[in-house]
């Protein structure tokens, strides 16, 4: 059975993986190039005819229309057929909810794994005054800490608690919460890789995940230098705090919503003591030797008892000649002492196993990734089978359509409010954006619509830090609330830059589309991007910033200038290349590895072929 000529050029049937034989690889490359040329020609024709929707009709990142109905139409079914279809649909919905529940639990396990593997290191970094006083180091520390803790809410909560404890001042804490914004998008980038098997789904999913990265990175590039130069966030929030009548903090504001549903299951597997990371961040050396895995699970009973305590007191002695002298005298007096007695041991799978935190973290990482990938595949397949025919049309139109004129421009701002509200409900931007990623991959939500939803998620995630601040003691409430508001106004400032103006709004989306197209062509690029963007690059910049400003400026400034020159030359080549010297009109003279990913793709292809051949030989030997 072979493919028809039409099927052979469908996106889903081209480049289903790397490591094919050379002939099929070259054929796929040629077919892909031909398909792209046809799309570009169609776009050109549509634009020439004056069709305003020309780009939308061929945009691979838009909502798709390939959800064709399966089986006979509803009106042609008999009673048994209708009952069977309803039963199957209900079963799929229940299975989808179950998979979604386990998917969210896997994100919790992933967070626990990273905390066990790097939580103490992140806490120690927070306690270093030399690091937090450097804005660039603080920014990168926020990125790495959030990647390790898998939660920007946790990072900002730690920062808020440190500010409330007078360990960290507000001004140096601002770059850390900016870095937390960048680090939080690593989760949905990992989730996007789960759709790597289907080229077009992967293209859309990766773009939908990285549009969050692009917004956060671009916002930091603009706003961090402004904050360092002017302290505008610090000054703005200080004015707000001074104008507020702040009373005492309220511990009851620490609400848990979504975790109330997932805790009954996740607590059977692992339970961590988050206060240990906070204690390390606050400089408590005794916390370094403690395990993050809980041992005692009750709050303890307070018992007050009377004990005899030895004390030294000054006793006055008056002599016969009325001379006064003082002597120290030991006496025993009764004293009330209150102590907390814990009696209830925790009960979960990894309780008191004798394994180190690192070993348990590695095991949890494997478990989390397996559950996450399996659930993601099943969620995608179930959604694909559910969203057929008219249902898919209704859902796509509802999510992706605009308000009626003249209120169409308000649609995106409403989506921002929806994203903020949903994130406040689930108390995690990672969970909300990770749930959106497979929907973008399937083509149910367009990239243009998911962009404002992720911006709203950035606003919603600041709610956790504000609640943590409001739970502080009355004398520390002002400073704690100020850093939480800095996080809020940083995100609002970013939105005001990158959303209201249509030209600027397109910039993060274009970057995300470029990354989506690149990963669709080179599947390995997704892993490389993940490692470089969230680990290697922050680590290098972090190290350079600690080496001193002279080293940092001496290395980074030439690199930045070189990048800017290349970008300007690229722009001139695109707009009016004839004004450039003949050699600079193209990059043909540049070595291939410096201008293309093709050489690296060939290396990965050969490695993949070798690995497949090795596995085939091993299987043959075993057989």
Topology:
Blueprint: H1 22-48, H2 54-57, H3 79-126, H4 129-132, H5 135-149, H6 152-164, H7 170-183, H8 186-192, H9 199-230, H10 232-243, H11 258-266, H12 274-281, E1 301-318, E2 324-341, H13 357-386, H14 390-400, H15 411-426, H16 429-442, H17 447-470, H18 477-498, H19 502-521, H20 524-546, H21 549-576, H22 598-622
Antiparallel strand pairs: 1-2
Helix pairs in contact: 3-5, 3-11, 3-12, 3-13, 5-7, 5-20, 6-7, 6-17, 6-18, 7-9, 7-18, 8-9, 8-16, 9-16, 9-17, 9-18, 9-19, 10-18, 15-17, 16-17, 17-18, 20-21
Quick summary of this structure?
By secondary structure, this protein is mainly α. It is built from 22 helices and two strands.
Explained architecture:
A two-stranded antiparallel sheet has the order 1-2. It has helices at 22-48, 54-57, 79-126, 129-132, 135-149, 152-164, 170-183, 186-192, 199-230, 232-243, 258-266, 274-281, 357-386, 390-400, 411-426, 429-442, 447-470, 477-498, 502-521, 524-546, 549-576, 598-622; strands spanning 301-318, 324-341. The two termini are 29 Å apart. It has 22 helices and two strands. The protein is mainly alpha-helical and 623 residues long. The longest helix is centred in the first third of the chain and has 48 residues, at 79-126. Among the domains are: 97-243 and 257-298 and 356-546, no CATH class; 301-341, no CATH class. α6 packs parallel to α17, α9 (199-230) crosses α19 (502-521) and α15 packs across α17 (447-470).
């Amino acid at each position: 059975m072979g493919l028809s000529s039409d099927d052979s050029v469908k996106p889903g049937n081209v480049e289903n993986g790397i490591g094919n034989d050379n002939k099929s690889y070259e054929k796929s490359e040629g077919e892909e190039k031909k398909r792209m040329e046809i799309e570009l020609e169609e776009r050109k024709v549509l634009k020439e005819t004056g069709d305003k929707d020309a780009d939308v009709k061929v945009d691979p990142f838009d909502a798709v229309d390939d959800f064709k109905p399966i089986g006979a139409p509803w009106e042609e079914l008999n009673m048994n057929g209708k009952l069977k279809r309803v039963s199957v649909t209900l079963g799929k919905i229940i299975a989808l909810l179950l998979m979604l529940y386990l998917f969210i639990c896997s994100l919790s396990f992933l967070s626990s794994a990273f905390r066990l593997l790097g939580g103490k290191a992140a806490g120690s970094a927070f306690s270093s005054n030399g690091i937090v006083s450097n804005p660039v180091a603080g920014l990168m520390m926020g990125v790495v800490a959030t990647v390790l803790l898998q939660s920007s809410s946790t990072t900002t909560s730690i920062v808020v608690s440190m500010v409330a404890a007078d360990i960290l001042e507000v001004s140096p804490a601002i770059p850390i919460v900016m870095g937390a914004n960048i680090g939080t998008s690593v989760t949905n980038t990992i989730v996007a890789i789960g759709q790597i098997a289907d080229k077009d789904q992967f293209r859309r999913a990766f773009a939908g995940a990285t549009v969050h990265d692009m917004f956060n990175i671009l916002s930091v590039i603009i706003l961090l230098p402004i904050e360092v130069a002017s302290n505008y966030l610090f000054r703005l929030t200080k004015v707000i705090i001074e104008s507020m009548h702040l009373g005492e903090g309220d511990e009851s504001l620490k609400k848990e919503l979504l975790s109330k549903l997932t805790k009954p299951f996740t607590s059977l597997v692992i339970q961590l003591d988050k206060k240990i990371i906070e204690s390390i961040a606050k400089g408590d050396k005794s916390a370094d030797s403690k395990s993050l895995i809980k041992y005692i699970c009750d709050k303890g009973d307070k018992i007050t008892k009377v004990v005899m305590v030895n004390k030294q007191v000054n006793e006055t002695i008056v002599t016969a000649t009325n001379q006064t002298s003082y002597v120290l005298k030991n006496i025993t007096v009764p004293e009330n002492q209150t102590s907390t007695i814990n009696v209830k041991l925790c009960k979960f799978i990894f309780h008191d196993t004798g394994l180190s935190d690192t070993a348990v973290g590695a095991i949890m990482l494997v478990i989390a990734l397996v559950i996450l990938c399996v659930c993601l595949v099943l969620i995608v397949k179930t959604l694909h089978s559910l969203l057929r025919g008219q249902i898919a049309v209704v859902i796509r139109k509802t999510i992706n359509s605009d308000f009626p004129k003249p209120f169409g421009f308000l649609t995106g701002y409403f989506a921002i409010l929806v994203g903020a509200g949903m994130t406040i409900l689930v108390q995690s931007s990672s969970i909300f954006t990770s749930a959106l990623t497979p929907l973008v991959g399937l083509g149910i939500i367009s990239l243009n619509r998911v962009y404002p939803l992720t911006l709203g998620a950035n606003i919603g995630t600041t709610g956790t830090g504000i609640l943590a601040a409001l739970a502080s003691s009355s004398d520390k409430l002002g400073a704690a609330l100020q850093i939480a508001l800095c996080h809020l106004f940083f995100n609002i400032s970013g939105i005001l830059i990158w959303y209201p103006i249509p030209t600027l709004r397109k910039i993060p989306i274009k970057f995300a589309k470029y990354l989506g197209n690149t990963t669709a062509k080179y599947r390995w690029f997704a892993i490389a991007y993940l490692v470089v963007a969230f680990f290697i690059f922050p680590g290098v910049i972090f190290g350079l910033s600690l080496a001193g400003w002279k080293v940092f400026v001496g290395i980074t400034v030439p690199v930045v200038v070189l990048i800017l020159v290349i970008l300007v030359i690229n722009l001139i080549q695109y707009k009016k290349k004839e004004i450039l010297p003949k050699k600079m009109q193209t990059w043909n003279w540049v070595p291939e590895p410096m201008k293309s990913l093709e050489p690296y793709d060939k290396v990965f292809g050969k490695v993949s072929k070798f690995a497949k051949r090795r596995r085939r030989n091993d299987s043959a030997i075993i057989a």
